[in-house]
């Protein structure tokens, strides 16, 4: 029974290691930033986020604010990045200046409290 559990854990960890390598091909970022985060923080980034820019942003904030894994997950699930007003967009390059300004102005207040 114990050996079956160990084999399964190893299989899961191998899958995470592969996902990690695919998600973070930039070894410089891995050494500079991700080396400061525990493994389970990194798993949360892999499990909860699909966009590389979002993962980088949350990783940097987790280090900056010394978040626990649970706080990191809570911040991801509450969409802190979108609420902070620093969301990376391509409005500047994909829309004319007037329209990109209108889109930003019509966007709801990023700091508003959403109750769902």
TrEMBL record:
Ranges where the YhcG N-terminal domain occurs: 10-83
Entry-linked InterPro entries: PD-DEXK-like_domain, YhcG_N
Coiled coil: none
Superkingdom of this protein's organism: Bacteria
Name of the molecule in the record: DUF1016 N-terminal domain-containing protein
